[in-house]
Design a protein that fits this description.
Blueprint (H helix, E strand, L loop, with lengths): L9 H8 L6 E4 L6 H9 L5 E5 L3 H10 L6 E4 L6 H7 L5 E7 L4 H5 L25 H7 L2 H12 L4 H14 L5 H9 L4 H19 L2 H14 L1 E11 L2 H14 L20 E3 L9 H6 L7 E7 L1
Helix pairs in contact: 1-2, 7-8, 7-10, 11-12
Bound molecules: S-adenosylmethionine (SAM).
């Protein structure tokens, strides 16, 4: 364990994920290595862990943390590249695939990561700094309608139109370059009572858009199921309803053996039932865990097994 990030639903994740100590496991969100370390502790000397993180600082930290482990292979890639990574590693199928979505406490708390609205920092929100569009580009160059739509769609923020209008009037006077400048634009049209929730939602919306998080998750889930061994497990922890809905719907879709329209007399599709859902309802942290780690409060874990 380290002070940078406390892993969420750790025991539950490992219980569902690791079924064969000699197996090959994939952690798509290495972060500070909390879940990866627990996976490794379950493996024997034949087991392998392949893990990746798109964020350079997290990758560098974990590279150092695991430098003495022989059966770990680490990448500084988007987890969307799970298929390329498996080719590089000559792995046909994984015994378990894991993702603990979003950003770590370190990324949220450290001003230099640029993910927090609590301290003044350059407005960016890219996990992978080679991405073309940053949060500053959105607020300074997108139209009022586009900004409002992003805030509404990805932040589920009802006051999106007023916030977008406030952003536009601020940027007419001066480019919005810092988290504080964006915060001020939001504060102008938000009551004190709702401020902290609204700030979280707007920053979440911009982060999701900038990193294309929802489309990335959808593609990752499809590839992950393709790459799971029979009886292999997939375990995903999400932190907001948009992500959780995608995981829930995708798992559900993978349990269907026919997707023909209801009025078709016979099945014409080649749909294969590929998953058995292991968590009918998502697992959530105990009150004790939330008391120890507030970041866990919105976590939902869903697990499924490849048929
Ligand atoms: C909640 S943290 C994971 C923490 C980790 N489980 C631990 O215990 O230390 C999420 C991590 O996933 C990374 N991440 C988010 N989206 C990613 C993606 N598409 N590909 C790779 N890494 C991603 C973030 O940079 C962050 O380090």
């Amino acid at each position: 364990m380290n002070t940078f990030h406390t892993p969420v639903l750790l025991k539950e994740s490992i219980k569902y994920l690791v079924t064969d100590p000699s197996g090959i496991y994939f952690d798509g969100t290495l972060g500070f290595g909390g879940h990866s370390e627990a996976i490794l502790n379950k493996l024997n000397d034949k087991g392998t862990l392949i893990a990746t993180d798109v964020d350079k600082d997290s990758f560098t930290f974990s590279k150092n943390k695991f430098k003495d482990y022989s059966r770990v292979r680490l990448y500084n890639f988007n987890f969307l590249l799970i298929d390329s990574i498996s080719k590089i590693e000559s792995v046909s199928y994984f015994d378990g695939i894991f993702a603990d979505l979003g950003v770590s406490s370190f990324q949220l708390d450290n001003p230099s990561s640029g993910f927090t609205y609590r301290t003044e920092t350059k407005l960016d929100l890219r996990m992978d700094k080679s991405r073309v569009i940053s949060a500053a580009d959105i607020v300074n160059s997108f139209s009022e309608e586009e900004i409002a739509n992003i805030i509404f769609k990805y932040g589920e923020e009802k006051n999106s139109r007023n916030i977008a209008r406030s952003i536009i009037s601020k940027r007419r006077i001066k480019k919005i370059e810092t988290t504080t400048e964006l915060r001020e634009a939001i504060e102008e049209v938000t009551s004190e009572k709702y401020l902290s929730k609204t700030l979280s939602r707007v920053f979440q919306a911009l982060r999701i858009y900038v990193n294309d998080e929802l489309e990335t998750l959808k593609s990752f889930l499809t590839k992950a199921v393709d790459l799971l061994k029979v009886n292999g497990r997939i375990v995903i922890i999400s932190y907001h309803s948009l992500e959780d809905r995608i995981v829930k719907d995708h798992f559900k879709y993978e349990t269907l053996d026919c997707i023909c329209p209801k009025d078709f007399p016979v099945c014409k599709c080649d749909k294969e039932k590929r998953l058995n859902i292991l968590t009918k309802k998502p697992l959530t942290p105990t009150v004790e865990e939330v008391n120890l780690n507030l970041r866990a409060r919105s976590a939902k874990l869903r697990a499924a097994e490849r048929l």
